[in-house]
Amino acid sequence: MSNYNFDAIIAYCNDKGIELKEEQLSMLSSFYEMLVEKNKVMNLTGITEWDDVVLRHYIDSISISEIMNLNDFRGKVLDLGTGAGFPGIPLKIIFPNLQITLFDSLNKRIRFLQEVIDELKLKNIETIHGRAEEFGKNSDYREQYDLVVSRAVANIATLSEYCLPFVKVGGSFISYKTDSIEEEISNSGKAVSILGGKIERVEHFTLPNTDMERSLLQIKKIKTTGKKFPRKAGLPSKEPLH
Question: Residue ranges per domain, the chain?
Answer without folding.
Answer: 1-130, 150-242
